[in-house]
């Protein structure tokens, strides 16, 4: 019974993701890019669905792919700035507009960001719990280091994704250039941005951890 419910949940997410992406590609007026962003953010969630089934060597391989695509989930939250394209709100002294098409765009953008941002980020706990079950992490401090490291690397990836316009696929198409930009191009603003985004992500993860529905996501 439980396995059946899990399969229903997973296939519901898959179908919803497909429908969302198709709609954004063919019908969204200004947010076509959300189809790719949501698909990339969904990828770590799909990977997390298969972690329990594989042997240890394959677990490490899937873990590497999960780490590669995971930053796309928190990256989604930086897409909120695209709301400025809407005519709903034009300043402190003006009332909200009632253009239904803009409110539909607002809803589609917000749903895509929040749903897939939080679902993708929740996979941190899935990977962590599975690592504990496999005795990869045997001490509490290892768990804390894992979470901190994931958030720092994710913040780094968000920076290069937002400001250097790099995507996860560039690791395969332009590996040398990508590694150079990520790890060998530093500035004070980059370090401060990473610190800020790391704090934000830890706060998000703390909120996710407190959700009563977390057990369903982990399973």
From TrEMBL:
InterPro entries hit by this protein: DUF1361 (IPR009793)
Pfam families documented for this protein: DUF1361
Keyword Coiled coil: no
Residue stretches spanning the membrane: 12-28, 58-77, 103-129, 141-160, 191-211
Keywords noted in UniProt: Membrane, Transmembrane, Transmembrane helix
Designated name of the protein: DUF1361 domain-containing protein
């Amino acid at each position: 019974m439980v396995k059946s419910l899990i399969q229903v949940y997973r296939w519901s997410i898959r179908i919803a993701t497909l429908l969302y992406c198709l709609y954004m590609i063919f019908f969204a007026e200004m947010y076509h890019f959300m189809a790719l962003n949501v698909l990339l953010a969904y990828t770590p969630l799909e990977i997390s669905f298969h972690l329990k089934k594989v042997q240890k060597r394959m677990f490490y391989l899937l873990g590497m792919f999960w780490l590669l695509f995971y930053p796309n989930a928190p990256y989604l939250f930086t897409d909120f700035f695209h709301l400025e394209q809407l005519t709903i709100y034009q300043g402190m002294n003006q009332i909200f507009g009632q253009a239904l098409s803009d409110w539909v765009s607002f809803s589609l953008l917000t749903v895509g960001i929040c749903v897939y941002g939080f679902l993708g980020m929740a996979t941190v706990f899935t990977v962590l719990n599975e690592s504990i079950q496999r005795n990869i992490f045997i001490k509490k401090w290892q768990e804390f280091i894992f979470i901190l490291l994931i958030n720092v690397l994710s913040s780094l990836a968000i920076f290069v994704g937002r400001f250097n316009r790099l995507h996860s696929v560039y690791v395969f198409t332009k590996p040398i250039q990508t590694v150079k930009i990520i790890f060998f191009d530093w500035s004070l603003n980059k370090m401060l941005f990473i610190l800020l985004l790391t704090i934000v992500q830890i706060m998000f993860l703390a909120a996710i951890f407190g959700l009563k529905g977390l057990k369903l996501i982990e399973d």
